[in-house]
Each structure stands twice: as C-alpha cells, then as structure tokens.
Amino acid sequence: xxxxxxxxxxxxxxxxxxxxxxxxxxxxxxxxxxxxxxxxxxxxxxxxxxxxxxxxxxxxxxxxxxxxxxxxxxxxxxxxxxxxxxxxxxxxxxxxxxxxxxxxxxxxxxxxxxxxxxxxxxxxxxxxxxxxxxxxxxxxxxxxxxxxxxxxxxxxxxxxxxxxxxxxxxxxxxxxxxxxxxxxxxxxxxxxxxxxxxxxxxxxxxxxxxxxxxxxxxxxxxxxxxxxxxxxxxxxxxxxxxxxxxxxxxxxxxxxxxxxxxxxxxxxxxxxxxxxxxxxxxxxxxxxxxxxxxxxxxxxxxxxxxxxx
Length: 309
Ligand code: G3P
Ligand code: CA
What we know:
Layout: H1 3-19, E1 31-34, H2 47-55, E2 60-61, E3 64-67, E4 73-75, H3 87-90, H4 115-119, H5 139-147, E5 153-154, E6 157-158, H6 161-166, H7 171-181, H8 187-192, E7 197-199, H9 202-211, E8 217-221, H10 229-235, E9 241-244, H11 246-251, H12 254-261, E10 265-271, H13 282-292, E11 297-300
Parallel strand pairs: 1-2, 1-11, 2-5, 3-6, 7-8, 8-9, 9-10, 10-11
Antiparallel strand pairs: 3-4
Calcium ion binds next to loops.
C-alpha cells in the first residue's frame, strides 16, 4: 500500500477529529475489509484466513472479539464455541447451564473456558480436513500477524459487550487496556497499522470516543430505527461512520447521501460469493454498492473479488 493510500485511509477515519469535517471526496479510495479474514476460502478467524486476506490485498482484516474466562481477548464470531470448533468432543460436559440454543440445544460459552483450554480446540476441521489443527487466535496474536504487513489495518469488533457486563466482565476496558498497552492509538502506530473499532453496541462505541478518542469507530446496525436523520445526527457526535447491513442500503439508497452530509462514512456488510443474490456475481454486487450507491467500504468473505477502480 502506498503512503498516499495510508494517509487517505487515516484521513477518512480521523477526518472528523483532525479537520472538523470529514475529509472524503467521491474519488476517495474504497476500502476492503476482509470479513473474519478471507473466510470464503479458509476457516473464519484462523491464521490461514487472515494470511490469505492479506495476500488478497485487504486494506483491513476483521477480528470479532470474545473474552476468555481468564480475561484474554480471542478472535471468535459467536459467543459460543460449538459452531466453529470441536469443543463438544474435547469438553463434552462443559456446556452452559444458562445459555441454550433457540430450541434448547447445548451451548459452550467461550467465556466459560480459559485461553489455554480454547487453544486445545481445532478451529479448522469443521471447514475442511486440510485445516485440521488450526487454533483460535488471541487478539494479540492476530494483531502481531497483521503488524508484519505495514499499511494493512485491523478492524476489531467488540461482540456482545452486554453479555460480559452481565457476567461482571468489562470487555471494553480489557480492549482499551490492550490498545493502550500496544500503543495502537498513537499517530505513528495508526499510520503503520490503521485501526477502526466496530460494535453493534452503541453505548460501547460512544464509550470508545472518550477512552480511545484517536481511534476511529463505526456503529454496526441492521435496524431501520438507527438510520433516521435524528439517529445519524446523534451518531455523528461520537463516531466516524455507520456500518449498515447491505439490505438497509438497498432499501434506503438515500442513506449514503444523508450519512455523508453529516460527515459519517458508510460501510456495508456482508458480501459473499456463496450467497444467492440478484447479481450475476459477488463482484458485480460489490461494484453496485461501491460505485452506484456510493458506499465507502465493505466487508467481504471474498477479498479477491473486490472491484477496485
Ligand atoms: O462486523 C461487520 C459484520 O461482520 C457484522 O456481522 O455477524 O458477521 O459480525 P457479523
Ligand atoms: Ca463482525
């Protein structure tokens, strides 16, 4: 990535802070966020997935974050372990007595396991035997891996902060402490490894604006109630962007213009080749959202299909 591109990304994220208004033109570079890594080709949230995302020229790699029993941030999409690991085999009796599936199915809550226990799990075989033995990475490990590639950013999502609050765990504090410990919030570090924080929890995004003010943040939503002018105006007081589910943009194409008018970037999710859509290909779908609807960035499982112009 060129230094000009890095500067542009930073201006995009930090424009509200540095200039009082978003520095973003229609010709600004579109940003590619690898959703759970290149998860269309390798098991989500494994080194294989993250490494491939970087090879496929992702601008940012996304880790979803959970907290282990001993307070370590790990890269995991679900609050529970059974979908993406062999936890049922390794710890058959350690299912939760409180958390259950919709139809009463057993669930293995990540926060009930230490990081050493989570590291014993196979996070690759559920996709293909060739990924057997892939581990759940910690946030520290993921970060170190991405930091080997200057210019590539990380786009961490704080998943389910209220779940942790109910268990007496302050997930946001654990994350803030980590960011500060790694000095990720300094201008030098943000230039080398851009960071954008995301969460569906609006209160957490607001909290980040005071605890990590130099780190850009976006609010995720799939809720029509979050895209009214009044809600967007409020959001613009503490975030740099909104990240709506793509169906919200398709249903309300004026959302992009309204968000931009308030200085908010728009990042849509999620574009995947294995989803049946009205488009001939995921590349065509992404092109429509980027260049016709005018969004600024998107999450995709297929970084190699991102249509750069
Ligand atoms: O974080 C953007 C997108 O990933 C939100 O959906 O459920 O895949 O985390 P999810
Ligand atoms: Ca996510």
